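Record format v2
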Amino acid sequence: MPDGAPVTAVEETYTISQLAEAFELTPRTIRYYEDEGLLAPRREGQQRVYTHRDWARLKLIMRGKRLGFTIAGIKDFLDLYEVGDAQVPQMRFLLNSARDRIAILEQQLRDVQQTLVDLKEIEGLVVDHLARKGALDA
Amino acid sequence: MPDGAPVTAVEETYTISQLAEAFELTPRTIRYYEDEGLLAPRREGQQRVYTHRDWARLKLIMRGKRLGFTIAGIKDFLDLYEVGDAQVPQMRFLLNSARDRIAILEQQLRDVQQTLVDLKEIEGLVVDHLARKGALDA
DNA sequence: CCTTACGTTTACGTAAACGTAAGGTCAGGG
DNA sequence: CCCTGACCTTACGTTTACGTAAACGTAAGG
């Protein structure tokens, strides 16, 4: 390894449409997330330059969306990942937020599991019914 | 048991505001669900009369909302519980719907679990940080 | 130099899920 | 008889999460 060489290479970057395609979003949506404070890409001239960090945040955003959270809710959630250098009062606040969120998720976990049980029972009933009618081919 | 007496007593009913209070909704919201076809209460004059069945459906509606489903999505979901007397093509359709929904829920299950892991790790970090500052009292 | 492609801002449009106000109905009580 | 309370309908307003159109900048290629 050459002396003085940066440990992380030039750091790969992405354009807005690259991100958009990767996550199946529109550029409009990504800019909207920026307006709402979920992303803060660097600028090169007027163009946005996204890094691996933005990629990771977008992954979290998509997960939050699948869980039905609002954009504002996702923003709060993302802030939790930024524990870095907070002061004690801010830390306490983060702790409470995290615990609130955990409680919600645990409820959601129960809901998902129960709904899966229900749906699989329905699936069984339907399959049964179709079998009795001899209509269970393709 | 008197001969000819109905097995189920007079069947308990609810007014719209009773339901609203029980589920922490407004009457407006419950009427809206009716507009969207999620509920179809009997009428007595102009007043809506809700039964135990409506109560059960509302429970499912609330669960769907906690899972982040849209009203239309919840309606489709509720229809799955009405497997009763469907014909074969309808049955096939229901089966597909149920299986699609199951796939979504299984993804959601993974998302919830992963998010819980993340958040609990964050919680641990924060607690640690606070402990090191000797600020872990209240 | 002109077009094409991709980016930008600004701003109005829209669907979903209700909130909220206005006004009407009807049973029970004083 | 009138009032109150709880219900009703109609309809416009509001927030969220983007879509979409207009108008412009800029770098690459023919």
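The radius of gyration of chain B is 22 Å.
Chain B has five helices and three strands.
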